[in-house]
Amino acid sequence: MKSLQIDLSHSDILNSKLKFILPDDILSRAKLLIFNKGEILLHQGDSPSGVYCLIKGKVQIEHLSKDGKDITFCIEEPLSVIGAIEIFQHDSTSRNLSTVKILKTSTIVYFSLNYINTIGLNEPVFLRFLCQQLANKLFISSQLKTTMCLSSLQRVSNYLMNEYNKHGSVIRLERRELVASFLSISVRHLNRVLAELQENQIIELKNKTIIVKDSELLKPE
After folding, report:
1. Contact present, 55 and 78 (Cβ < 8 Å)
2. Residue 113 · residue 87 · CB < 8 Å
3. 70 band by pLDDT with thresholds 50, 70 and 90
4. DSSP secondary structure string, 7-75?
5. Alpha-carbon distance 2 to 22, whole Å?
């Protein structure tokens, strides 16, 4: 991990939507963190240290349950904010709820706990930004709970449709173990559903890439 004093002219800042959300006087108080693939951003159970805004790259958020099962909550992309829930729960006993792993080289804007407690939570623009991010997470969480009632085919179809809406017809497939964990199905079921969708000419599989050939058939009935 590389930690830098933030440079508002840095290409990752200039190319990020965050530049248009938070004013320069707020961004100038942050640090720029650059992580390589495979590094850990946060460990579950550690004390919260601040808020992290992903502006480039991709991370995996996972949780180790009491029975020892490793559950992938989600795979986050820009402009995801990490650590906001813990900030609002912060007291002497609060801990990080999840482990965050870097899936590809990532650039992150980091606001320290000291800045947040002394200035950030009193800044309406910054506070509104955090609240919007928390609202998005709540919406996604409610959608995930709804999918628990769906079949494996419906879960995979919904996942692919969401990816299609975000990235277009060419979808980069993460490790199948991660996707299966995220959808709460087995890798075997995931492979079976993907094979079925390909057989029905709804998608085409090419190594780690999925090409959506008929998005209409992925939509929920």
Report:
1. yes
2. yes
3. low
4. -TT-HHHHTSGGGGTS-HHHHTTSEEEEE-TT-EEE-TTSPP-EEEEEEEEEEEEEEE-TTS-EEEEEE
5. 23
Instruction: Give residue 194's Cα distance to chain centre.
Output: 23
- In the numeric block, the tokens 């792993």 are attached to 101
- What domains does the chain contain, in order, with CATH numbers? 8-146 (2.60.120.10), 149-210 (1.10.10.10)
Task: Give CA–CA dist 1/155, Å, rounded.
Answer: 35
User: Strand 203-206 and strand 2-5: pairing?
Assistant: unpaired
Of 88, 92, 108, the residue nearest 42 (C-alpha) = 108
| Cα–Cα dist 122/154, whole Å | 43
**Confidence category of residue 74, pLDDT binned at 50, 70, 90:** confident
In sequence order, what are the residues at sequence separation of 6 or more whose Cβ sits closer than 8 angstroms to the Cβ of residue 12?
A: 32, 55, 56, 107
Total-model pTM: 0.73
Tokens of residue 183, six digits: 């959808």
Contact by Cβ (8 Å): 6, 32: yes
- With H, G, I as helix, E, B as strand and everything else as coil, classify residue 155: helix
Q: Residues 118, 133, 140, 104: is their CA dihedral positive or negative?
A: negative
Q: How many residues does the chain have?
A: 221
Which three-class secondary structure state does DSSP give residue 211? Answer: strand
